[in-house]
Design goal:
Blueprint lengths: L8 H4 E9 L3 E8 L7 E8 L11 E2 L5 E2 L5 H25 L9 E7 L2 E7 L6 H7 L5 H6 L1
Antiparallel strand pairs: 1-2, 2-3, 3-7, 4-5, 6-7
């Protein structure tokens, strides 16, 4: 796993369909360019707030400054950076202390650009865990262990 300013996500991966969205992130399917598309990954993009992000869901406040929930732009950026840093630190701690483990997704690589930080992760199939839990009224201990 490495992070270098000169490397770009688009050099190594073809970014495809959206798999999911969160408050500060979006997850897309990615296909490796190095092995003729045999390796598929999940690419989680943690977005940055700030001048580069105007027009991406942020409202214009008074005096034309972008605002979100009444917070000044400098606070939005610092909150965003703190959440971004926390997400990366949590993932790094998991990778260093637990991985490889069959129940923990692997972090393959990290890229950074003006839009945010892109975490290249192992692609997991099977849909959302939350949807599976809600879809059934009860789980036996045996069934829960298989999820």
């Amino acid at each position: 796993m490495s992070t270098t300013e000169s490397r770009r996500l688009s050099d190594d991966y073809e970014v495809a369909d959206v798999l999911g969205r969160g408050g500060f992130s979006i997850v897309r399917r990615g296909v490796s360019k190095s092995d003729e598309g045999k390796t598929q990954v999940a690419i989680k993009t943690l977005r940055r707030l700030g001048p580069a992000m105007t027009g991406m869901g942020m409202q214009q406040g008074s005096k034309g400054a972008p605002s979100s929930g009444g917070l000044p732009l400098w606070k939005q950026v610092s909150i965003s950076d703190a959440l971004l840093t926390n997400e990366i630190l949590v993932m790094r701690r998991i990778v260093e202390n637990v991985a490889p483990h069959p129940n923990v997704i692997s972090l393959h690589d990290v890229y950074e650009d003006a839009h945010g930080v892109h975490l290249v992760l192992e692609l997991c199939s099977g849909g959302e865990l939350f949807d599976r839990i809600i879809g059934r009224e009860r789980y036996s201990e045996f069934d829960a262990a298989a999820v």
